[in-house]
Amino acid sequence: MTQKRLKFLEENYVPLVTYHLNEEGKIYLGKKDNKKCRFCGRTEAETTFSNVAHAIPEFTGNKKLISYYECDECNGNFSRLLESHMANYMNLWHTFSQVKGKKGIPSFKTIHEKKSRVDIGETNVNVEEHEGDSIATIDDVKKTITFKAKRASYVPIAIYKCLVKMALTIIPETELDHFNTTLNWINEANHSTSAFDLKALFALMSIAPGAKPYPFTSCILFKRKDNPTENVPYMLFLLAYGNFSFQIYLPMCSEDKKYQGSTFEMVYIPTPIDMLQGTSILMRKKLDLNGKLSVKEEEETVVMQYESKTGLPISEGPTV
Known about the structure:
Elements: H1 2-12, E1 13-20, E2 27-29, E3 53-54, E4 65-67, H2 72-97, E5 108-109, E6 117-120, E7 125-128, E8 136-139, E9 144-150, H3 156-170, H4 173-176, H5 180-186, E10 202-207, E11 214-224, E12 235-242, E13 244-249, E14 283-288, E15 299-305
Helix pairs in contact: 2-3, 3-5
């Protein structure tokens, strides 16, 4: 199956931009002087560029890929309107995968008034539970601990827009004109009253087992060949970090208008994890991110194995 997917990718796409953030120094996109925001079009004479704009959100572990062409106002809007939704969706997974965000590995807290919580230490998983707000179930025979908890609210389409915004940050300036409508779409202040009616916003997500199989953040853009063998979208985006990968196509591209009314073919892009033995245990999801309304109290489950556990007084919480 992996070879078949590689063949499909080779026949229809070429890699356009690749960033593997495993280098020592930082990588800066754009020009340090005479800055112009690619998302709102304003210059330094019209707005400010004082904040550090991460091309890929910090919650993925990115500390190195920085954009010069994102103004402070757009940076703040994207953080509030897009990135916060993806961070809420991934919070529980990021805690257990030990993905270091802006303030280190995030704690997971339940949404109830008396918050139970999970914190990851260097050698421990620390669980603090409150009465009526249990989130952990321990199986001493299998030596597993199952966490069931409800996410903070998120809007599905905001997650898709967040991934698109990452792609439009790393895309070359020469390709940006193909995505003027897409830029307007991700800049919308209200997801529920969008002027655009998109119905095919699915993200292909995979979760790999083990300790950070993707040890650093990677992001790749794939551009359609001039002579593809299939009807495929003009641009694909792949993001991989920690235990996770996400794949999307970039919607509303002017180069895709000729395919309007037809069906696109999009397959899972293999990563180095797929080349290893035992990848059948990869968990793959097709995320429906078309929703424009807030999803509240959605439950997620994570199962972990452990070597030993120690019970502490309830005031301190059990440690596993």
